[in-house]
């Protein structure tokens, strides 16, 4: 049985911000392109049909009732708009086929993208309009954008970028600068429509580059993007994949509103370290638990994460640690949402511990 909410996401968010009573914690399973299965369309339709992209997001929101909708299809949309080539499978997520350039001598060919003209960016902007029209009065709508450092990798190729960090760092700075301009143009276009940009920076992960390299090559451009979005009156949520502990302070010191962490990070430690300065989101394993686990395992992990993070000073949003695999079982998504509804708000630790103990007995 699917439990029902007593509030819309916007009502819940406003009440939480004002310290009033709410029905439950915010929760966002982060379906990504899996929304195509709910709507009954092909993922490839997202690349050319703005209404299909928006309608699929709305259909999934209506099905599960989660606390945020995002226009975002893949990491390569911005690099493609700047000259990279992509592979567009009929019913899978777009992947990078060829970077915009293969040699640093070609760097002058790269120009910032025009979000109203280049690549699939206009499709995404049009989808945002449908989204606002359809559900903008009841749920927060966001526009995903890849960060400048990550986009730089896709302009010249991941392996080349990692080598250039050592051999020719100035090239990375130039690519980040051009990428930043694209990101800001896209963010401004989204804000003008009424959405809030969220930033994904997977290549900034400590699993990919060292904290030192993050501070030299990613942070300056990421901070400028954050400042730009904030200057337009919007708060900023950032997601970085993998291990991030050694850059938590750097990230939160940018003045962000929320930080989304992967399942490999320590949720409780993150809340204790930076939870007084930003809302913490994420952490539930998208692959091993949400995709590969049972509804009972999803329920238990959701309870454990709520117990670890519900009292984080700036709040906690129950969410998967990254976008869910496309064919994540719907019953597992239901299990996450139902568990949050079952726990309710304010969160009662004794109730959660009891539920966890009962779960252990059943197993």
UniProtKB/TrEMBL annotation:
This is Uroporphyrinogen decarboxylase. GO terms for molecular function: uroporphyrinogen decarboxylase activity. InterPro entries: Methanogen_methyltrans (IPR052024), UROD/MetE-like_sf (IPR038071), Uroporphyrinogen_deCOase (IPR000257). Pfam families: URO-D (PF01208). It comes from Clostridium collagenovorans DSM 3089. Residues 10-342 form the Uroporphyrinogen decarboxylase (URO-D) domain. One of its GO terms (biological process) is porphyrin-containing compound biosynthetic process.
